[in-house]
Amino acid sequence: MDFTLSDEQQMIVDTVRSFTERELFPHEALVDKLGKVPPEIAEQIKKRSIDAGLYAANMPAELGGGGLDTFDVTLVDREFGAASYALHYIVARPSNILRACTGDQIDEYLVPTITGARVDCLAMSEPDAGSDVRGMKCSAVRDGDDYVINGTKHFISHADIADYVILFAASGEEQTSRGPKKLITGFLVDFDTAGCDVIDGYNCVSNRGYHNMIINFDDCRVPASKILGEEHHGFDAANEWLGSTRLQVAAVCVGRARRALGIATEWAATRVQFGQQIGKFQGVSFKLADMQARLDAAELLTLRAAWNDTQGIATDSDMAIAKVFSSEMCQFVTDEAIQILGGMGLMDELPLERLWRDTRVDRIWDGTSEIQRHIISRAMLRPFGG
Ligand SMILES: Cc1cc2nc3c(=O)[nH]c(=O)nc-3n(C[C@H](O)[C@H](O)[C@H](O)COP(=O)(O)OP(=O)(O)OC[C@H]3O[C@@H](n4cnc5c(N)ncnc54)[C@H](O)[C@@H]3O)c2cc1C
What letter would DSSP give residue 96? Predict the structure, then answer.
């Protein structure tokens, strides 16, 4: 593995970094304070990211996307990751699972989502089914050529600005040696479909301005043509395409931690107490060394997972290792950065306290740290019959 960037990759990194600093950083404090992104700012960022060719970087070039492979998308996510996710999100990264679209779904969902005409969101989690996602109760019952959907999804990110949801619902049950197992099907459901209601979710300490919503389905009727992938095989499509969302979390954490470490390093080099720079006290300088070491390790694990994915050899464990290590690294780095700044670290004059708050969710969404450790340890034990 050689992670030396080509000239083209370096240009992508430089472009995204300067876009992030110029177009996203200036709005962060306002968005955090308001708890929302003012529509005119959202429009401006969206337009400028489309003009700069940064929108939907993960999608195929022949359909209007950026055409970047997983490794290059990870570099992009790392650079955007330094900014507030509420703003970063606007430079859309449509869900990779949309690549499972076929037939009319391509023109109706995939292409307009790539061009920015439509926005997707994805719904698996329910009040009684979080980590145990297969325990979902939201059901899709076949009725002629349609499915009738009933149930509730919650914690659904940016459903307030989305036009449709990639929904996973229980469509049946099969008997296995371990007992009955729910069969899950993916659907594309427009928010203007009768019986589908999006309502306000909860206020979250992380990523203020990036909202999670509740979606209620009450006898919501969708035609079979809205199935994404194959009936009863929703998790096959999810497993094929959604590993990359864990990688995105890892890359964002690396970008965010790098920004926090930059602020802390500069502070340690310039803040004077007891007649000398505080960075000369071992109690501070060793913190910096530990932060740098963990950041480098997280970055290498993230790039390894991305590189493996690009080679078609990534395992679930690669993604899980990158996600769990990077999210925990980012919590450590942002927390230590605040310690190095002392009281000023907690004040909203600087972005540190926000970076610290924002990264708390990274150990929870897209699979908690505990679930990532299950994935990693299961893969280790499996060859021994575990
Ligand atoms: C802000 C936000 C946005 C989100 N956006 C989306 C979205 O867009 N779409 C979507 O579908 N979901 C979304 N989620 C849901 C997210 O994926 C879940 O929160 C996550 O999977 C954990 O589920 P839970 O919160 O119900 O916790 P639970 O599953 O109830 O877990 C509670 C605790 O128990 C632990 N635990 C559970 N099972 C085990 C086990 N087997 N072994 C060890 N420990 C275990 C967990 O690790 C955790 O510490 C979002 C969540 C948040 C907070």
Answer: G
Same topology between domain 7-95 and domain 120-233: no
Cα of 196 to ligand 1 centre, how many Å? Answer: 23
Distances (CA, A) of 177 to 66, 132, 134, 181, 257: 45, 19, 17, 10, 45
Atom number of ligand 1 nearest to Cα 366 = 17
* Residue extents of the structural domains in the chain: 7-95, 120-233, 242-384
Whether this prediction's pTM lies above 0.85 is answered by yes
Distance CA 217, CA 197 (A): 7
Atom of ligand 1 nearest to the CA of 367: 21
Interval 94-103 mean pLDDT: 94
Q: What is the CATH number assigned to the segment(s) 120-233?
A: 2.40.110.10
Q: Which residues line ligand 1 (CB under 6 A)?
A: 121-125, 130-131, 155-157, 204, 212, 361, 364-368, 370-371, 374
Domain 242-384 matching CATH 1.20.140.10: the answer reads yes
3-class DSSP assignment, residue 128: coil
Summarised one tens digit per residue, pLDDT across range 208-253 is 999 999 999 999 999 999 999 999 999 998 888 877 899 999 999 9
Tell the residue nearest (CA) to atom 25 of ligand 1.
130
**Digit-coded pLDDT (tens) for 166-176:** 999 999 999 99
